User: What shape does this take?
Amino acid sequence: MRKFLTLPVDWVVLFIPILLTVTGIVTIYTITFAQHGTSLAFGQLIFGLIGLAAMTVVMFSDYRFFGSIALPLFAIGLLALIPLLPPIAPKLPFVMKVYGAHRWLNFGLFQVQPAEVFKLIAAIFGAKYLADKVGQIKIGQIIIFAILSVVPFVLVLAQPDLGTAAVLLTIFITLFLASGPSRRILLGALIVVGLVVPLFWANLKPYQKNRVETFLNPAADPQGEGYNVRQSLIAVGSGGLTGRGFGQGSQTVLNFLPVPHADFIFAGFAEATGFVGSFILIVLYVVLISRAVTIAQASTDSFGQLLALAIAAKFTFQTIVHIGMNIGLLPVTGIPLPFMSYGGTALIIDLVCIGMLESIYIRHKRMFF
Assistant: This one.
């Protein structure tokens, strides 16, 4: 046991995701037992064990190996996204439609959400592409990077999955900014963004526009798009200071809160644990993300540094948006809360990301820690 504890790993980065995963399983169990029994919680437990095994393998592997296969990973990821395009997906028997969107590939014994996997692929590929260009990136290279970033973004957005597409965009933007572009390139990028945003808004699905409009004015459609936000706010508020206890919340147990085990798991947790529990949960995420940034700073190679920053950006964006939409500060986009929301692919990928961070840490600890 003593030898195990002396292994060169970041125990904070390892402990927090495990704690969050266990907390997520408990929360899922208590808020879904009345409708689904133990099936969802048990499924999440299995996903968690698979994720922990994958995390361990990645943790003790050299993260630079994944950089060496970044291009094949990127190509495979794109190929996995193509069957989910609306014109193609309904014709394929192995594509699942859930909540009106084709986002899952069904292989019988298990289902995979390619867009979730692509979050990690985007971090690996983007970090590898920019690793040897940090501080000296040129306009031509930026254009190529932008094109390579837009392709998966558009494929995911077309499913439609605005939330995951936004996560991919955040990862690519973080990598671009971390590559040290000149002021001239930054100015050009801002001009392009200003021109693209109106076009992007014009091509959103009607329900996606409604979510943004509901965020700006929740009272405009209280029984429609505004219903989820209202019920989430009631759940968070009813938790009070110390919460109503797991399995005791009326909003979750009585099924007033839609999809409480996934899109609104923070609201379900807040109802059970109150302000105190919610505050501790947020602190755990802040500590985890800050440690990821510290690992990035400790890396002696650009690929490790960029990869750690991309993973930190992924966790940061998902946490902020999920909690923000649960408390009415951001539009509802269906982004899962890392480690806690129900979903096998998302949980496994989150834990693999932790394995990547640990792999970077292990190979630079002697020099910087």
